[in-house]
Design goal:
20 strands, Lipocalin, globular, 259 residues, ten-stranded antiparallel sheet, mainly beta, single chain, 2 domains, ten-stranded antiparallel beta barrel
Amino acid sequence: MFKRIVKILPAVCLAAGTAWAADSPFIGEWKLNPSKTRMPDQMKVESKGGAKYAFDFGGGAETIVVDGSDQSGGYGGTLLSVKPEAADTWIVERKKDGRLLLKATWKLSKDGRTLTDYFRQFGASGALYSVDFVYRRSGGGSGFAADWWSIKETMNSPFPFQVKAFQGDGLSFITDLEKKTQDVKFDGKDYPFEGLAVYRGSSSSAQRVNERTLVITDKTNGKVTDTETIGLSADLTTLTITTHVPGSDRPSVMVFERS
């Protein structure tokens, strides 16, 4: 779900030692504040003739036949299926190693101008992450084929988030839903993601701007996919993650409160 380059900072900003990491104000458990969070999304659906379509959810196009069968779209070792349940309804599922990762019900409005996506993601521990998106059509295409831009996102479930010390002088950012761990050190090097729902070749590098601001650059197979600015409020009780994706001028902003 998160789809978002900064210049190398002076060496003095990289001097994050073991003592800083151990006492880092970022460490702790965090709870998402849905009322202050905005996660604009874009997805592209392109007709390739007949029942064949190309779907791009931000990680590159996956071309499959819309017939409800599980098919390899070539993205992260997962299988994608799209079932046309009705003229205005498609059911989208993604699986990996036999486990259902997500299910989304797409409903097209009568005038074809908007699409509502009832998005449900299933965590490795059985946790459910639920968001309802409303998209507006952009560009050409008909039916479900279009460039879709979200105009509204409704968060229906909690999104717990943890930050822990990593190997003395680094930090681990842990998304509990998928038990996904993003380990970083402040040396400019790329460190791989870990977890069940991690796409192959995903990695991050981090820079420390100051005591309350970090910048993390995420990559997939060496290509930058997004840049995250992580900032703490002056009283250290609010953590804000602003994610920028190359080519998009609409960052996502996730606001967390300390648990």
